[in-house]
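User: Sequence for Protease 3 below. Tokens please.
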Amino acid sequence: MSPHASPNDHRRYHYLELANRLRILLVCDPDTDKSAASLAVNTGHFDDPVDRQGMAHFLEHMLFLGTQTYPKPGEYQQFMSRHGGSNNAWTGTEFTNFFFDIDNGFFEAGLDRFSQFFICPTFAPEWVDKERNAVDSEYRLKLQDDVRRSYQVHKETVNPAHPFSKFSVGNLDTLADLPGRDLRSDLVAFYEQHYSADRMGLVMISPESIETQLGWCDRFFGPILNRNLGTPTLSEPLYRLDDLGIRIQIKPVKETRKLALTFPLPSVDAYYDKKPLTFLSHLIGYEGDGSLLSLLKGKGWVNQLAAGGGISGANFKDFGISFGLTPLGLEHVNEIIEALFGYLKLIERDGLQAWRYDEKRSVLESAFRFQERGRALDTASGLVLNLFSYAPQDLLYGDYMMREYDEALIRRFLAKLTPHNLRMTIQAPEVSTDRLARWYQTPYSVSPITEAQKIRWQQSEPAPGLHLPQPNPFISTRLDARTPALPADMPACLVDRPGFRLWHLHEHLFGVPKGNLYISIDSEHAVRSPRHIAMARLAVELLTDHLNALTYPAELAGLGYQIYAHQGGFTINMSGFADKQPLLLDMILSNRTLGYPDPARFSEIKEQLIRNWENQSKTRPISQLFNQLTSLLQPNNPPFEQLLRHLRTIELGEMPEFVAQLFANVHVETLVHGDWDVTEALELAALLERHLGDNSQPSAETRRPLISIQDRGTLIREQGCEHEDSALLVYYQSRTVRARDLACFTLANHIMSSTFFHELRTRQQLGYVVGAGNLPLNRHPGLIFYIQSPVAGPQILLDAVEEFIDLFPLAMLEFTEQQWQDSKAGLQAQLSERDANLRSRGQRLWVSIGNKDLGFDQRERVCEEVGNLSRADLVRFITQLRSRTSDRLILCSYGQGHEHDERITGQFIDDPKAFRLAAATFEA
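Assistant: Structure tokens for Protease 3:
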């Protein structure tokens, strides 16, 4: 059968169930450049044996390490990478999901390899020992992660008989051999007890016909054994009576303050067609004028509010309402909760109206009708869980359905949002704690909420100033895409004069009444000094906060926007239905000078930004090295610690003059892309000039220098990180931005990355976070190799990287001619991949403008150069990366307990500022 599809979706769909009861959704997409498959198993960490916690996750890892048909570990990943593909998997509470994509011509061969995971894995003993170390590294990677740490507290405060309480990741302790039971025998037993065709769902996407794909299903997935396991069931409740009415306090690693209120509910899966909780989330989470968030922000207590999130499973659903607290808000938690229950009472009295439901439904219907095609991999992995949740006819529509307004049903759920059905969690550095959570050593405490407090909250009335949302003026009324009179494939420059340039493309490929609008405002004033950069970033935060209540209805109606600072000034990016974007842009530009921010709000936004930047020093080491790399090489992107010194001293009185100066001399670059004709594009240009013209003089584009590391040999910068793991990042920089150099860097990464991962992560077991990548900075391509390791210090990691690079030219000589040509063809297929949707096409065009690729053909030129590269060319390129002769930048941090080895030789960068001042630069 064919599920109900969007009228704008021209793919063919077919649902079936194989003889072995494997559920399958086939998608025929003639326009896809990649084929993809995703197979989900209705098994997750809930099924872990009590004495083998982390087993489901460990099994997911092991399935990638060889099958009887394809026994060589790493071959699967190398095959996918060589043919332009990617692969991954995840393990959740009740599901494990495996997925890959690949060039269309190799999909059949990819399915052959993929399906063997579920038919004949080898579970080779030598890899069992190695991979449990990888799982342990993954566990250790998140020891300082506040999300994982608070998740463990959640597990320790539920019914211990419910499987949610289990430790999901696993480590060397839970995966150790037991007396009379080695890990491998338990692994095989777990696989045989839980992996069965009747617990599996598969989605395949390919340009091949449904008939061809049906043949592949029978051939590759028909042999999966049906053990007739049936659907797993949960009988124990997630929470006992004692687990409700409690206050949990957690001390985080980072300086964050959050209040999370959780209301336990039964499973709501059966109501996906009516979405009662979606409707309630819509009202509670409203952020516009008169909203609960607006009230609490005005008091200086709260920065953020989110409604509707929370864990869910076969027999439970948590309805969560969370608040981002200010330090002052931490002192007023009871009043915040009181205001919430007052607002819930307002919803109960006046909010349950059919027109509100219909408005939300019309937004979802438009989203379904005009949903944009995503990458095949994202589509497949996103749809596969629907096979377990929705009726076959609703597999595509289920996420968007709001069939009818059922007030009785909504009231039933609203009635459960009471103080007597509540768990509250506070995360803040100031809280007192008396327990440590297992595995992550999270400090926390648990205490009962008093009956008197519950009654006070229950009796609260709506606060003055609260009111429910008005009809939304931003809901689009132009729902038919127009066809351009003269279709074009690249933007045309409609306006090009000093200080202002506007590009326009009336898109004809996707047939949606949407658009992308990019406006980059270059202002030398924004980046004149580190202090100016700090002020510009603060100005963006203040503007975003000021706009939040004004623009929230637009976001509800399917319009989105971002405002972000960059190396030349700042950018406004808008997306969504085209007919309402001018209204939103006018609103944003009308408020661009910030007016006169409330002093208390200014202080809170500034303090929030200070906390965010301070918390960067508590991120994982490899993230800190990436931050250090960009700040070291991009003078217009100073390190957080330098910006912090200036941010702390900025006063409110400085901001109006600074913001006025931001717009005094500007260069504006704009892309109008989507369902806009030339006249409408010029009207947008006039709107921009009307807002900016009176007080702005035209200026040149802001310089974006990049520090050159050429002819410097090995440069070394150490970063201090308080973490058990060490980390290393090695960066190579291109001298030019020529297409041939781009091709060399891109092809080297394409060929080396999967082998590098397998060698250092899987075989040598140096760490869980291992990778190679192509990292362009200011148009210059760059090649990076990085590792974060719990077992080795920077010198050992560098030795491993150097050995890999030094030996790789020999490995390249062992490539067969077919492997060499396949590798090049795989990269060329990636470079030639068509844009999946309007948004991705708009992003690519905007990047081209930023890269001065004004012919919009750099991809094609690089693709051609890849085809021209010989094996000798690439061997010569990789040979130049050898440690003793290359120009490179090494960034490293020493983990606690790893020796501070001074054997790394090169020029140490002790003073980054002096290094930048003395270095040559590339100009962009």
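The chain has four domains: 12-221, 241-374+387-458, 492-698, 706-922.
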